[in-house]
Each structure stands twice: as C-alpha cells, then as structure tokens.
DNA sequence: ATGTCGTACTCCGTACGA
C-alpha cells in the first residue's frame, strides 16, 4: 500500500556553507524527500554524512566544481536514479529519482534551469541563448504528453511565469526571468506536457506568490520584491494527490540564508 | 536599483556567475 510523503525543493546556494540550514529545515519540517539545487560542489565534497545522520540515508547527487549541481536527499529508498545532460555543456542541472512510496513509485525530476544573465537578447547574450536552448530541450523532453508513470518536476526553473509571480509585472517584463519569450516557453512546456502547476492549484492567482528575494535589497521582507522562480509540477495522475503546498517564507530570514526558500508539498497515497 | 552573495584563482584582492 502506498504511503503519503512530503517533498521539498530548495535552491540552497552552496550546500557546504548551509548544512546547518538543511538541518534546521529537517528539524522544523522533516520532509521525506528534499531536492536541492545549486549545491556548488562535486559529489566528492558533498556533506553526505551530515545528512545521513538526519535520516537521509538515500542520496542521489549530480554535482560539479563551483557552480550549479543538484541533489536529492531521501528517507524513502530509490528504485532508480537518472541524470540528464542539456545543451552539451557538461553542466550538472538535472537528477531524477524514483522513490519507493510503497506503491508503484513516484518519479521525481530535480532541475536547475540556467539563470540567463542580465540582457534578454539571445543575439547579444550567450547566457540568455543558452537558457532558451535549454527550454527547447526541455520541451522536446517533457513538453509532450506525460508517460504512464506517476511523475513530478521540481526545482529552480529561473522563470516566474505568471503576472502575480512577480512583485511588478509591468516593471519586470524586460527583466530576465519574466520576459514574454521565457514565460511563454515555460507555460508551453508545462501545458503541452499536461503538467499541473501544483503551487498555483493551492495558492491561486491573483495571490502574489514568491520563492526568491534578491540579496541586493536592504530589507527584503518590507520591500517584498520577490519572484516565484521555484516550481512543483505534477502529472495528471499525481496532481490530485498533492494535498498541500507550503512556501517557507520564514527561511529567507534565517541566519546566512539562501536567496531562495523551500517549497514543501504533501503527496497523499 | 549596480545593490549582495559564494566560489575559485589571480590566492588576503579580483573575476565571474547569480
């Protein structure tokens, strides 16, 4: 019989200097599965033993030196692990696990989409061109009807697709993460693949919803100039099983925080 | 509104990515 579990996704912005924050999340929310992005270290330097002591004895890591990198920490065993490359760059931006939930299993894809630099013009900015190519490859991969498996996509997609996913739609239309070419591409991938935006199913438009606040703000909470860059997508079979979504805004105020906060989903059986 | 972070090398300051 399948059991319920909780799943968190969090861009940790260097896992080695924020192991204490992962410990705090484990103490306060105890997610069964934790998907991390921007671990910024190769697998050999990943602080596995710290997390093993927290009960995360199952760990799947795709890391590289200095930049990017993703990992899944889990109290549920993995039936499978997979890593996918994008844009032939050798970047560590994806890892998938199938968690054994006691039933047929749930496939979880953990993604870190390129940020895209500052200038939203692919002819002038290679990083933006890379982001658009990455989205093209995502479309070819998961932008078709989903396979007959229970699947979830989470991670830092570095795009705030909806008007109410940013503090000012009008002021951010020309800012990378909210430009029409990016938001249209991401929504086309999601809807084309039949993926359900689980965060918005639980916290609907027009409520403002953010998961990231820049470090370059004197008072991030008072200014509240956030963006929803982190996402939880569920395939049609899993969407009705997502019983709750929580954005842990308080984590942005923790000591030496990441600029992203965890998003936690409860998946019922 | 060019602001604050983290990482790596150029290695105690600078360059880069975000």
From TrEMBL:
GO biological process, one term: DNA repair
Protein name: Exodeoxyribonuclease III
Highest taxon of the lineage: Bacteria
Endonuclease/exonuclease/phosphatase domain mapped to chain residues: 8-260
A matching Pfam family: Exo_endo_phos
Required co-factors: Mg(2+); Mn(2+)
Database matches in InterPro entries: AP_endonuc_1, AP_endonuclease_F1_BS, Endo/exonu/phosph_ase_sf, Endo/exonuclease/phosphatase, ExoIII-like
Marked site (Interaction with DNA substrate) residue numbers: 260
GO MF annotations in UniProt: DNA binding; double-stranded DNA 3'-5' DNA exonuclease activity; endonuclease activity; metal ion binding
Cofactor stoichiometry and binding remark: Probably binds two magnesium or manganese ions per subunit.
Catalytic-site annotation from UniProt: 112, 156, 260
Database matches in CDD domains: ExoIII-like_AP-endo
Keywords attached to this entry: Hydrolase, Magnesium, Manganese, Metal-binding
Site location (Transition state stabilizer): 158
Residues of the site described as Important for catalytic activity: 230
Family membership: Belongs to the DNA repair enzymes AP/ExoA family.
